[in-house]
Amino acid sequence: MSREALLKRKRRWILLHLLVLMLIIPVIMGLAYMLAEGIDTERVSTVYLPLAILVAAYAGLGLWKGYRMEIPNYRLVEIVKCTNCGYENVTTPKVGDYINMEKEPCPKCGRPMKVFLIYRERVRSSKKGG
Amino acid sequence: MPQGNFYELLLWLILLTIFAYASREIDIFRTIKEIEAYVEGFRRATQKAIETTLKEFRNVAKETESRRVSRIEERVREMVDSVFLEPEDKDPYGLMDKLKHLMLVEDSALINEIKSLVPRAPKVAVENLKDLIEATRQLNLIYKYVEHYYRLGKKFKSIWLLLQLHSLLPFLVEEVSALESSLEAFSKGLPIGDSVGCLVAARFIQLYGKGEIREVVEDTILSKAEFKGREVLVIKAKGPSGVTGRLDDALAMVVKSRREPKVIITVDAALKLEGERSGSIAEGIGVAIGGLGVEKFNIERLATKLKIPLYAILIKMAGPEALSIMSKEIALSIDKALRRVERVIEERSEVGDTVVLVGVGNTIGVYP
Ligand SMILES: [Zn+2]
């Protein structure tokens, strides 16, 4: 799946669990209040309080999972190397670049430099930014 | 038996039956929903592929001032929808020759079609557009087939059909994401994971080549090199456009015009298993070439006729890795693969022998 789609999914996941958590917290507080004050004659809270806490825990876990969801991010690397002295220069490849393409002359010895490698490297994104 | 207990039992039985039925229905529903999500994902991937292809066509057309842009969309959609009909194999005699003929026809038809749309485009751009069209075509095919089985399963409420489709989804997702990521590489013309075989051959030419590089067959080059007293003939697709070359024809030419090689070594990317590391290298006996099997067959036939041993060096990678821009792990494995090639040449041939080294794969972004 593409990066944008993953990002969208992450956002939706976090939003959903946050919503559930925000809805369930007042319920827990209400039930706890009923239990503490002893106004709960039907003993509703003893059944529903654990259930609500369970739902809250589940939503919290989901939120944490969404927060930690890592979205792979890549950066492109091009290594240009001098064919004579081995001087290396790391840049970003431009469209149309290819391996063994001749580039500007070497700043050290003036001989032609060639594209040695083009690859993509995984960037460790900060967990927050995704 | 008291009356109350009997009714209770009956009620329980009814409830259980309903529950059993409902659980099956829920299962079907869940499977359908999951497949639906994937079908939608595949549809989006196909749509994106078509858009990327069209954008690339427009770019090329604009750069080379080739053609009215309006007709391109219609023609590209037609090209994506066109199908390759495999030859009849009830009588398998001569099947590979027929297959090869059809492949060459398809190739040149597609190239001509693209050239007619953007006549002034350079060769590299045309080849990359062709690769884009092929990736899009494959995505479209997967999407259409999955949707077909999904609709069929839903229409007949066939849980077995749906479950079969469901169990295939992980493999299809792998393939779709591979094709999806190939779009970026093909539109930018940068090397992909599958280019690694060609890259190893290119490095070998750079290190030990004698400078002479000839295009012996269309899109395929032959270069002479010398390594530890052996004459090494390196064959690979030309590049840097996205072509795979005609390696079997080049090899046949070599065998016909020179003395017989003592060893044939093929280097190619291979699919790794889930537990294997990307960029790990394996040696093997045989010909390492993917695709429809025509080149593999021809090289095997040639080598068997002349009793030439076939060795293979495989660079392992995941499916999506093979078609997306080359990953760092694979790029770092090139040197290791090269050492293996050198070792195989040293160990399995004598000084003065002729060895053929074939760099297999799509040579996009790799020259010579
Ligand atoms: Zn230099």
Overall description:
The complex is a heterodimer of chains A (130) and B (368). Chain A is α+β, with helices and mostly antiparallel strands and 130 residues long. Chain A has two domains: 66 residues; 49 residues, 2-Layer Sandwich (60s Ribosomal Protein L30, Chain: A), CATH 3.30.1330.30. Chain A is 46% helix and 23% strand. Chain A is built from two helices and four strands; from the N terminus they run ααββββ. A four-stranded antiparallel β-sheet of chain A has the order 2-1-4-3, with no helix packed on it. The longest helix of chain A is centred in the first third of the chain and has 35 residues. The relative contact order of chain A is 0.15. The C terminus of chain A is likely disordered. Chain B has 368 residues and is α/β, with parallel strands linked by helices. Chain B folds into two domains: 177 residues, no CATH class; 167 residues, Peptidyl-tRNA hydrolase (Rossmann fold, 3-Layer(aba) Sandwich). Helix content of chain B is 61%, strand content 14%. The longest helix of chain B is centred in the first third of the chain and has 62 residues. Chain B is globular. Chain B starts with a helix and ends in a 9-residue tail after the last strand. Chains A and B meet through β1 and β4 of A and α1, α5, α6 and α10 of B. Zinc ion binds next to loops of chain A. The site of zinc ion has 8 residues of chain A, from loops.
